[in-house]
Here is the input.
Amino acid sequence: MLTTEQQAHFETFGFIVLRQAFSPAEMAEITREFDDVLAEDRQGQAFDGAKRQGVLGFIERRPRLTRLVEDDRIYEPLEQLLGSGFVWVGSDGNLYVGDTNWHPDGSNLNYMRIKVAFYLDPVAKETGCLRVIPGSHQPPLHEHLKPLMERRGDATWAPFSALPAEVPAFPLESQPGDVVFFNQNLWHAAFGGRTGRRMFTLNFAARPVNEGHIDYLQRVYQGNLKNIQQMQYTQTGRVYTDVFLHSDRPRIQSMVGKLVELGFK
Ligand SMILES: O=C(O)CCC(=O)C(=O)O
Here is the structure.
């Protein structure tokens, strides 16, 4: 459970880090599964570091990883921040290559979505930790930052007279076992990480209550479907699995019910 102050931190700044929420023994298990899933996706090939490897539908591939979404340490904060009836969007496991440029995951300021990120190696400001611009999940700062995206990937682009790596931001330095929760409208980036930086994310959205929300979920689903069909190594053709969509676990059922109703597969 989050304290009232932690909730206020999330609401005001757009993120919260839960320090050492998972023990070293749990992280060893989770990391082993992570490495296994990413290796399985590569079908025996070594990771050559030429570009990011991203595996969508990541946590559904191992029961130990699937359990994370119903774990009190993840589920309860989400219920506090998103409200009851929140829905599953999806997960990805990643080996990153190079910097991640400034972006929000979306600009749908009327619909709350949260990303939960696990960094599996220690990461600091100059070594690939997530940097966030506190408060940028809300207007007007959210909109004021849009020039940052005009020339993505250009390391000399400085619309605010600061190079990308010097844009004023807060570094979410973390150790394995820490869990980052952030509002997906928040502007974020990462600089200086090693090739093969390991992280995975779980993504959720508030209960959809209007056409705009449903429309958003449909668009994300279609986008994920396209991405999954174009995955670098293994194409499953499905965003979700039947086992997950028809789970007998009450917490999982509650987050996928709407997706089943919408015909997502
Ligand atoms: O860790 C990173 O490089 C960035 C992660 C990110 O942008 C995301 O998951 O949306």
User: Anything to note?
Assistant: Residues 96, 100, 105, 115, 130, 188, 190, 199, 201 surround 2-oxoglutaric acid (CB under 6 Å). The radius of gyration is 18 Å. Helices lie at 4-13, 24-41, 63-66, 72-82, 141-144, 211-229, 242-245, 250-261. Strands lie at 15-18, 53-56, 87-96, 100-103, 113-119, 130-132, 170-172, 179-183, 188-190, 197-205.
